[in-house]
C-alpha cells in the first residue's frame, strides 16, 4: 500500500468514516490493507487509506492507526460531514467511500479504477451482498435494492466512488441530511456527468460484502417503520427521524451511527 506522504503517486483515496467501530473496523482494515497491497502489486493503481474518526469514544482511531491508515478527526457526529472530512484530507484524484463494516475485493477496485481512467465515468457504486446468511425475506429485500440500484443508477451508502473534480464541483455530500446522503450525491454526480457525456455506473462484476448487523439490533417492525419514515418529505433532514443511523444498538446498549 502506498505511504500517504508520497502524494505524487497517490491516484486514489479510500475513505472509511467511523464512529465507535472498534468491534468491527479491524476486520475491514485487515481486508482493505491486503486488497490495496495486492492492487499495487498487480496493477499501476496506487492509493492511500484514510479513516475518519467521527468523535469516537472507543479505540476506533487507535485501531486504524495500527493498520497504517491516515486518521483524521471530525467532531460533529454526522455521516455526511465525516465523509466530507475524509475527502478534504485526501490526496487522490479518485475518492472511494467504504463503510467501516464493508469489504471490497481487489477485482472490484481494479475494475472501478480502470473504468474511471477511460474518462467516460464520473462515479458509481456496486451491488451488495450480506456478510452472513440472512432470512429469505431479508435476502429478497437486498436483491430488490440491487435491482433498484442498477436500474436507477443509485449507489448504496456502503460503497460509492467518484472523481475528485466532480465531488468538489457539486459540493460533496450534503450536510443538511442525516441519512441517504449517498442518494443525493448519486443524483448530483449524474447531473454533473451528464453535462459532460460521462456516466454514473453501478458495478456488477463483484458485490461488496456488507454487515447485516441492523437485522440483529432491530426488529423487522422497527426497520419497516424506519423505511416508511424516511419516505416522509423532509424526514432525512431530521436526525430524530433517522434514528436507526444514529442510535446503533449492540448487546442492549447504544453506540454510534453506522458509517
Structure description:
It is a single chain. It is built from ten helices and ten strands. With 259 residues, the chain is α/β, with parallel strands linked by helices. α1 packs across α4. The N terminus is likely disordered.
Please name the defining characteristics of this protein:
259 residues; alpha/beta; Spore Coat Polysaccharide Biosynthesis Protein SpsA, Chain A; 2 domains; 8-stranded mixed β-sheet; two-stranded antiparallel sheet; 10 helices; 10 strands; disordered N terminus; EC 2.4.-.-; membrane; cell membrane
Number of helices: 10
Strand content: 15-25%
In angstroms, what is the radius of gyration? 17 Å
Mean pLDDT figure: 88
CATH topology heading of the largest domain: Spore Coat Polysaccharide Biosynthesis Protein SpsA, Chain A
Q: What can be said about the biggest beta sheet?
A: 8 strands, mixed
Summarize, please.
Residues 13-131 form the Glycosyltransferase 2-like domain. By secondary structure, the protein is of the alpha/beta class.
SSE layout:
Blueprint (H helix, E strand, L loop, with lengths): L11 E7 L6 H18 L4 E7 L6 H7 L3 E4 L5 H11 L4 E5 L3 E2 L2 H12 L3 E10 L5 H17 L6 E5 H7 L10 H14 L4 E12 L3 H4 L2 H10 L13 H4 L2 E2 L2 E2 L5
Helix pairs in contact: 1-4, 6-7
